[in-house]
Fold:
Amino acid sequence: MERRSAKGWLYLLPAVAFLGVFLVYPLVDVFVYSFEEGYNSASQSFFGVGPYNYSYVLHDPYFLQALKNTFVLVIITVPLSTGLALLISVGLSSIQKLKDLFQTVYFLPYVTNTLAVGLVFMILFKKTAYTDGLVNLMLHWFGAGPVDFIDGPHWAKMFVLCFYTVWVVMPFKILILTSALASVNQDYYNAARIDGTSRSRIFFRITLPMISPMLFYLIITGFIGAFKAYSDAVAIFGVNLNAAGMNTMVGYVYDMLYGDSGGYPSYASAAAIILFVIVLTITCINLLISRKNVHY
Amino acid sequence: MKVVLQNLTKRFPNRNKKIKEDVVAVSDFSFEIPDGELIGLLGPSGCGKSTTLNLICGLQKPTSGRIFFGEDDVTDLPPENRGVGLVFQNYALYPHLTVRQNILFPLQNLKGAERPSKEEMLRRALEAAKLVQIDTLMDRKPSELSGGQQQRVAIARALVKMPRVLLLDEPLSNLDARLRLQTREEIRRIQRETGITTVFVTHDQEEAMSISDRIVVMKDGVVQQIGRPQDVYDSPVNLFVAKFLGTPPINVFEGEVRGGLLRLGEDAVLKAALPDQKVWVGIRPEGFAPEQAGPLHCELRAVEVMGRDISVVAGHPACAGTAIRAIIRAEDRPDTQVGTVRFALKPHKVFLFHRESEERLAVELS
Amino acid sequence: MNYESIERRARRRERVRKSFTYFCLVLWALMVLFPFYWMLLSSVKSYSAYNSEYVPRFFTLSPTLQNYVDAFTAVPLAKYFLNTLIFTLATTAIMLVVITLAAFAFARLDFRGKDLVFTFFLALMMIPNELVVITNFVTITDWGLRNTFLGLILPSVTSVFYIYLLKENFAQIPDELYYAAKVDGTSDLKYLLRVLLPICRPTMVTITILKVIECWNSYVWPRLITDDANYFLVSNGIQEIRENGFGRENIPAMMAAVVVISVPLIVLFLLFHKKIMAGVSRGGTKG
Structure:
C-alpha cells in the first residue's frame, strides 16, 4: 500500500509542483503583497504592514477611471451580447438549411487573435488625415457627421470598445445557447403546438424556462469575463490605456506591475484583490438570483 | 366525432441522400373510425403507426389523401385548429410547471370568446384532474411524480380542452409491467366516461387487444387488417398478422396439400379441400390437443408449468421455427419419459397461407 | 370557419417569419465576416492606393502582394511566428504530459489523500489568473527568466480544468480493461500509453486544439515577461508593429501582418471546426 501510495504521488508530482509554485503560492503571496506598504522591488524591502495600498489604489484617479470604464463595459455588453446571442440562437434553431454554415461562420471570431482583429476594428473606426474610415463613411450615408472613434470623445471610444467586446464574446454565447436549445425535447414544442400555443407564449413559457440554467451560466461567466476585459481595449487603443482614458481594472493591475508606470506590485496586488472581491460579490448575487429563477 | 382517413399516403425523402427513392411511411390508408370508439394502431416499430398519428393530429401533412373529423376536412388545418389532444410517449410535461399549471396550459392558450374565465379554467382543470384521479397532486412538479402519475397528468392535459379526438402515442411503454396493466384499464375507463374518439398507438399486441374496440394492424406503412380484436385473432388475413397477434406466438409449419389432405412432413393432419400445393400452416398454441392416436407426431422436449395451463415444447421436422409451443390443460400433461407426444389439431385454430404471397387461403378444414 | 383561409394565412405568416429569420442571420454573418474581408482587402491594396482613398473602396482592381513582402522584411514577423510556434508546441506538449499523469493518478491509482487533493484541485479552478499573475511575474523575474522561453512556458503548463476533463474521461473506461492488463502483467505506465490514451484520443485531441488556440492568442503573460523583440509572440508582435513598425500609417502592411498571423488558426478551425465547437461547448470559457 505504501509503495502504491508513493506511485500515485509520483504521477501527480509535476502537476502539484507547477500548481504549487504558480497558483497556490502566488495566491497567498498576493495578499501578503497587498499589505506590504512601500514595497521596493529592487531592494525587496518594505516599510510596514497595513491597508495603505488599498487606500492608495482607491484614491488613484486612474483606478477610478478604470473602475468606471469596466462597470460601463459590463453593464452594456453583458445584457446586450446575451440578448443578441439568444435572438440569433433562436433564429438559428428554427431553420434547417444552411444551419451548419451559419453556425461555423458565427464561431469564427472565437479562434481569431483578439489583438490582430482588434487592429482591423481600429482601422474601420479610425479617422485619420487621409480618410474618415469606413464607419464614418456609413454614418455619412445616414447624414451623421464624422466622429473620431479612436482618439475622440470618451463615449465614442466606449462605443467602439463595447462593440468589439460584443463581437468577440458572441461566438461562445451563440454556441452554448444553440446547443441548449437543441437539447430541448421536440415533444414539448409539438405538445404546445397541438394546444395552439402562440409563438411568443412558447418562447416565454417553455423555451426560456427550459434553457434558463444555461442562460444563467452564460450571464455569470459573461459578468466575470467582462470584468476582466483588457486585451480588447489594448487591441483598439494601444498599450497606453491610461492616456486614452480607456483603461480597465485588469489593465490597471498590469500597468501597475509593469511598463512605463509599473514597478508597484503592492498596488497591483491591492487592485487585483479589489477586482476579485467585486467579481465574487457580483457572482454571488447572480447565483442567488438564478437560484430563485431557475426552476429545476 | 367520427374520424375518416381517405387514401392517406406519406412519403419522406430518403435520409441516405444517395438513394433517390422516397421512403413511404404510410401508404394508401383508408379507414373510418366510428364516433366514440377506442382504436389501437398496432405494428412493429417503423411500420408507420406513429406517422399516422402525426398525420391525424396535424404535426405532419400527408403527401396525398384527406382526413375528415366528422364532416370537416381538416387535412390542411394546422394542429392547433383541429381540436385534438395528444399524449406523448414521454408525456412531454413541462418540468418547470406544477401539475395544475401543466393542465391549465392548453386553456390559457385560448383567445377571445373561446377563452374561459379564470374560475372556469380552474374548475375545468380540477375536473380533468379528478377524472384521472390526480386532484390531490395539483401543486407538485412533474419530477416529484411517479411514472404512472405523470402519465395521468399528461392525459388530463390532453383532455382539459375537450378535444374532438384523443391521440395516445405508446402511452404505456414507459411504465413497468404492473403499472401498465393498471393504466390500460384506466385509459379504457376514462375513454368510456368521456366518450371521446380515441386512437392509440402501440407495438404491444396484448395491450392493443385488451382495450381496443377495434385494432388496425400495420406493416411497412400498409394496413394489413382492421377489425375487432377477437375477429382479427380468430381470422388473420395473412401470415404477418397471424404471427404478430397472440402470446405465445402462432406456430408456423411448412406444409403441403396433397390429395385433399394437409400434410406436415409425413403426417397427414387434416382434410383440406384445396388443389395440391405447398402452403404455410399456422397453428395457434391452443390448437393442439394431446391424443394417444393423434396424427401429429412430435418429439417432446420440455413441459413448462404455468399453473392453470401447461406449455409443451416440442419439435417437428416441418416446423419453420425452432420449436413448437402448445398450451394445453394441466390434466392432459404428457409423460416426459416417453420422449414423443402426439397431437390432434383443432381445425378452427389452424390457418393455411399461400406459400408465396403469404395471404390466407380460404378453406374448410376438418 | 373557413379552413382554406386559415391554412393560407398560416402559410403566409410562416413564409414571412422564415424570410425575416434568414435576413437577420445573414446580417449577423456579414457582421462577423466583414472585418475578415476588410483585412484581406486592405492587405492587398498598395500603400499609395490605400492612402489616396479618402472614401474607402469595397474592392480593388490592382491587388498586390508587396505588403506581404514588407510584413516579412520590414518587421521581424517571421521571428514572431517562429517564437509563437515554439512557445505553442512546447507549452502544449509539456502540458499534455503533466495533465495526463495527474489525470491518470486521480482516475486509476490509489494513494493516501487522493480525494482531498482532488477536491483541492477543483477549488483551484476558481482562482482567477489576474490574482496570481503578479507574484508569478515577480517569481520569474527573480529567477532571471525574463526574455526566455522557459519564463514564457512554465506558468502555463498545467491546467486544472483539463486535468478534470481528462480524469472524467479516464474514469469512464471500464475497470475490466485495467484488470485484464494487470493480469497480462502490463505496467501502469504501459497501460496508460497503450490502452488509455488511444481510447481517449478524442478528448486528447480536443484538449490539444483548445490549448493551441489559447497559446497562439496569449497576450498578457508574454507581454509582461518579454520586452526583447527577439522573444515576442505574434500578439505582442502585432502590438509592437502597431506602435512602432512600418511607420505608423502603413496600414496595408499592418493588415498583411494581421492576415499572416490569423491564417494558421483559421485553417486549424476550418479543418477541425466540429471538434473545436464540441470541445468548447463542453467546457471552454471565454468572454
Q: What stands out?
A: Chain C touches chain A through 89 residues (CB under 8 Å). The radius of gyration of chain C is 26 Å. DSSP finds 14 helices and no strands in chain C.
